[in-house]
Each structure stands twice: as structure tokens, then as C-alpha cells.
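Lab notebook, bench 4. We co-purified these components, and the gel suggests they stay together. Before we commit to crystallization screens, I want a quick structural picture of the whole thing.
Request: model the full complex, all chains together.
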Amino acid sequence: MDTPLIEFKDVTKRFGSRTILDHVNLQIYEGEVTTIIGLSGSGKSVLLKHIIGLLQPDEGTILFRGRPIAGIKKSAMAALFSQISYMFQGNALFDSMNVYDNVALPLRETTTLAKEEISRRVMARIEQTELSEAIFKYPSELSGGMQKRVALARALITDPRIVLFDEPTTGQDPVRKNAILSMIAQYQRKLNFTAILVSHEIPDVYFISNRILALYDSRIVFQGTPEELENFDHPFMNEVISSLEALQKELSGLYSQRQFQMLNHVQLKRRDTAENYCVVVFNLENLDDIVNKMGHDAAQAAIRSMGLYVDKHFGSIGGFSTRLRTNEIVTVLPYSNIADAEVILQRFIGDFQKQGIRDIWAATHKEIIPGDCVEFAVRAGIAQGQPIAEIEPVVESAKLQQKEIGRLRCEERRLAPSGIMIEGDRRGVKK
Amino acid sequence: MALTANSQGSSDNNKVYMLLKPFSLIGRTVIDWVNNLGAAVIFLSLALGQSFRRKQFVKTVRQIYYIGARSITIIMLVSLFTGMVLGLQSHHALVQFGAEGAVGSLVALSLIMELGPVLTAIMITARAGSAIAAELGIQRISEQIDALHTMQINPIRYLISPKVIAAIISFPLLTAVFDLIGILGGYISGVLLLGLNAGVYWHSTEVYVVMSDITNGFIKAVVFAIIVATVCCYQGYFAHMRKDSHGAQAVGLATTSAVVISCVLILISDYVVTSLLI
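Here is the predicted assembly.
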């Protein structure tokens, strides 16, 4: 494996008699999203502050690209830290400055850029983070979510190579939590920085993280992929997962991936050789367009609405669903062969074209100016699982079978006041 | 028997501890003071060292406005009544010796040499010093100062240096305002209210006040500026390191400490500087 970008070797930190970090060993790799999870007060923020140099370890070494930070010259250290941005848990916005000045501050103070260039860059970030309306407002006049976005805009204004996010979703409602994480993931892909998150609240970190580190009892007890974490057997997991699952249910109305897998395993055990099951994979297309035009909140509201509709429909007949990716939902129909499942899905499509897609539109519509419209489509694919077979290949097979089951079109001639046309497979339903 | 011997030993230890306790308390307090004094001197040196860096001018002018310009009204008010009281008291005392002609010089010298610099410094401490300590304390506990660190902005350069330089510029100017208005206050009470001859008042002021008196007053003002700016900035900047409190309470106590310590040091240093200048 490559040399880690940041590595902790036996790092110990004490505050008085309390040991916060006890011989912590971890690796963070370049270009990845690494999330540090742990219970509240377990020392996650302390760990993060060691990376940015706000705290020094009492024992142990922190290495940057294989070189101990302690041995780096002061000038090189300044250059190193200038590549790192930090988004504080409490945002740490300057309350005597408006949004524009807060975002512009790092450029004004650390660069020799002309006023016009600073203004151009700041305005671009402000627009990307959907803060144009709040540009001259002060932090105290903003909602918690908007403050987070200002902090994010400020953290990204210098185009850093590494961004540290300390509990970026704290204090947000479930939809907004996902919107913030989705925004982080989007920027990470776009700007290709290394993201290090500290989070304990939401399972969506699994969707955006390449690696997860678990801090428990002052030590790193797990390092690996989100999939590996699902199978990690440790007392810590019980505490964290139970809170995550409650939030996941609250967020999308769906099961967490772990609950989903447990249910599936139970079903697998019950099945005898004569029983089949089917998997339906739903995909909300054009999610990026929704994000770009209507914002992250609207996109998350759309996903949530789709999850609720799918769960309502299939849950009542014994199906169970989970969110597989940001825009993907998978539903298992136990004890169904492909023919039964096709009939069930056709019924669902009928209902979905009449009401479901309207619900999704209505959920997103709350967030935008009336008259605006973004075209989006929902696709679904179905596949039958063999008895006693694992689910993953069936899901992949269902994905290959996906076809469009509903599309929301923005009518060009705008005959209706809303300008919206809902279309199914062959017929259009005028709103 | 062994138990009795142990009890006896323990009792002796307690007595020794009780006897030494006041000394250890004094020792700890003195060590704390020396530590803080050393840290404050380093803090001031760093702030002064950053004063002439790029992009400091605008920030310093802004601080001169906050510390200096916005204090003018209160300084004028206090100096007016201080001068009036001085005129009144000195007239009342000197008239008994037939020396009321010296009212002008007494008012002017008192103001220029002592009351002007001291009361100006105390008034600015109350108005701007407390605000500086509270502002920095809040910035510290809300992690705004840590945020500056992470943005590679030196907090001493960005926050402290402009305040120290602004104080050094503002204090002598405000002291001059205080002196002038105070002398006018003495004129109002001595000449306009008590009927002293105006020519005598101005003449005695002009004759007895020499340039070195004014220079000494300004030297004191600069010394007080350095003390007030350093103490108030230091208390606010390190509010999070207070051992007696945390959070908002620490900011409150830091503000109180800033004002109290500044006022006490103003009076102590006034004596020291005066004894050196006389």
C-alpha cells in the first residue's frame, strides 16, 4: 500500500490525569474520505487537532508522508499547514463579520491576491454553497445549516489539499445532515482533496467514506472500509450502531444496511430449497441536477420521499428496504418468484406514476422558487435470487435490468402553471 | 503501641503542614505572578514585533477608532468635571492664604502631571479595556482564535498587535484632550463661577507649566497604554487557561481581572514613573 498521507504512531495525549489518546496508531491516505467515528467525548476532536497542530502529542509521533512532523522545519511546517483547512464543530465563524468577510478572510490575510480576484473566488464559493441570499448577513442571523455552509465555504476557499471536518452535522435535522455530507462528498470529488471527518451521528458517513476509523476507550479499535465495519464485532459497535439505526430510520424510513442484512440472513435461514426471493433496485436519476439547481436540501428531501414511498408500498406486503447508495434503494421481496414480483412491481409503477413521483416533486418543490423545474427520472430493475444464495449478485443482476418507471418532465411550452409533465413508460400524465 | 506511634507521627505531620501552608500559598501565588508577568512580557514583545507587518495599517486605524475616537466623549465629560472640582477645591483652600491667583497653575499642573494620564488610563480601561478582554475571551472560547491558527493567520498579529499600537497612539492623544478640557473646567469653576480674574488664571497656568511637565505626562500615558493594552489583551486571550472557571464565566472573570489589574498597575506604575522622572 502507498505511504500514508498522515500516520499516527503510538500517539498519547493526556489532560491532567485523564488520558484522552492512548498509544493511538492510524493511517490516513491521500485523496480518500476517512471518517473517525466514536462515542461522544471519546477524543475524536482532540485527535483531529493533533493533525492541524493545535495540540501536540505527549508521546508518540505524527508522520506526514512518512516524515515526522516534529522534525520538519518551521517554514516547511507553515507550508504544510497551509494545505490544511479545518471546519470546526461550532463553526468558529467571526460573529462581527458578515458572510462575505468570513469567507474572504483567509484570502485577504494569507495571500497577495487583488481585491477583484478575492471577490471573484469568494462569490464563486458562496454561490456553490447556496449562500448568495445571505452574503451580507452576520452569523447570528443565519440558521445552523447556513452557518455550517459558511464554515464549509471558508474551509474550501483556499483550495486546500486536506480538509478536516469536526462533527460537520452536529445540531442539524436529519435531512440537512445528509445534505451537508452530500455537499462534502460532492466537493471532495470535484476538488479531489483528502477529507477527514469526525462523526458519530449518522450512517450516511458510510456512503461517502472510503475508510472508517473507530476510536474507543482512547484507542483506535478499527480501521477499514465501511463494509468491513458492518461485520466488526466489538462492544463499541452496539452502542454506535443502535444510535445510527434510529437516525437512519428517522432519515429515510428505511432499514440500515446492517438491519437489512440481518433480516436477509434470517430470511435465508428460513428458506427451503423451493422458495425464491426477488430483489428490486430503484435509482433516482439526475440527482446531481437536483443538487445543482435546487440545492442539497431538496435532493435529500427527494431521496427521503422516494424511500418513504417505496417502504410504504412494499413494507405492507412483507418487503424490506435499505438505502444502498446516495440515490439507490434496494427492496427484498421474500417468498416471491419473478412472475409474482413483476406483478407487484407493475402495481407499484402504476401507483408511483400517479402519486409517488408527485410526492418526490412536492418534497423538492418546497425548497425552490415556484416555476423552477428540474427533470428527473426513477428507474427500477428486478431479479430473482436463487434459494440459499447471497444477495449481492442478485442486486447486481437487478441493476442490469433497470428501466425507467417514471419521469418528471419540465414541459417546454409551459402550458400548465407549474410547467410540469409527469410521464410513465408509455403515457404522459399531465399535472 | 505501634498504632499510638503512627497516630503521633500523623499528628506531627499535620502540624507541620498547617504551619507551612501559608508559606506554600504565598509561594504558589508569587510563582504564578512571576510566570504570568514573564508570559505577558513575551506576549507584548510578540505583539510589538508584528506591528509593522503587511496589512496592519487598516486594522490599527480601526482600533484607534474603537479605543481612541469612541472614548473622546466620556474623557471630555470626566475631564470637565475633574477640572471644575479641582478649581473649586483649590480656590477654597488657596483663598484662605490669599493665594487664589495660583488656582490656574495648580489645576493645570495637577491635570498635566497626574490626573490627566491616570484618569484617562482608568477611563479607557473601563470603557475599551474591558471590551477588549471580553471580545478576545469570547473569540477564544468560541474557537475563533483556533480558527485563525488553522487558517495560518497569526492571531497575535491579527488581533493583538493593532490593539497595542492603537492604545500607544490613543492614550497620549486622549490625555492631551483630558488636560485641555480639565483646564477649561478649572476656568469655568474658578473664573466664571467663583469670580477669579481670567487673566490671572491663564497667566499662572502659562508661567508655571513647563514643557517637561507635559512630556512627563505623555511618558506616563504611553506607559499606561502599554500596561492596559497588555493586561486586557492577555487576560482575554488566555481566558480559556483560567484555573478558577470555564466558558462564559471565565470570560466574565477575565474581564474583571483585566480592569482590576490594569487599574492597580496604573497606580503603582504612576508612582514608579513619577519617582524616576522627578
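The first strand of chain A starts at residue 6 and ends at 15. Worth comparing against the SEC data before the next meeting. The two ends of chain A are 55 Å apart (CA to CA).
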